[in-house]
Hints:
Distance between the termini: 40 Å
Low-confidence stretches: none
Mean pLDDT: 92
Number of domains: 1
Strand order of the largest sheet: 4-5-6-8-7
CATH architecture: 4-Layer Sandwich
Number of strands: 10
Oligomer: single chain
Helix content: 25-40%
Order of helices and strands: HEHEHHEEEHEEEHEE
Radius of gyration: 18 Å
Amino acid sequence: MRSSxxxxxxxLQKESWDAYISMxxxxxxxxxxxxxxxxxxxxxxxxxxxxxxxxxxxxxADMAVDCIRGWKAKNILMTYGTKYHVGDxxxxxxxxxxxxxxxxxxxxxxxxxxxxxxxxxxKVSRSIIPHGRATPLLRDAMWNTLKAAEEEEPRADxxxxxxxxxxxxxxxxxxxxFTTPALQLARGRFGSRECVxxxxxxxxxxxxxxxxVVGKDVKIWNLxxxxxxxxxxx
Length: 234
């Protein structure tokens, strides 16, 4: 479902949807698909719903189900996103999405594959200065190390976060941490008027084998419709 061609968001939606389908075809049938929170936009109260195709969150959830099923993944794992997007009262719309796609879902998710323990959660703190962006990831890694030493949680080899809409990869000899690219564009009212910094639109694929990351494929799209217009004045 897209806006009409007359909508100012039509070109953005069409180009990003085509890019999403392209990634699905390229990386189809993964062993594990991690959907790391904020599957729907929600009511968009800060913008009065001005950018929504439809504000019924049940329909948004059905749209998310279709987007997830298109990957044809063998295993689907999910984390809960922020209450602003996926349920600001008692409900969690991502719960019903997980039920429909037969996914395991948690606020903070742990799973093991190929001898590596992975910890995933949607939200992480952000920094508006480029040289401060690694700090929240390193902080979460340190908390995991401390809690694992006290046997309060599993020791993670890989820590995955989202929420901040930029991709950052940080690695030490014993731990890998990264934030995922986003699938939300930067040209909306909130993004264009209030936010600073880069927005990385895309996805990331990892290949793991016997306790090692043997392949990393990061796809960041430079969507032409997302480029601000330059007004030429003679």
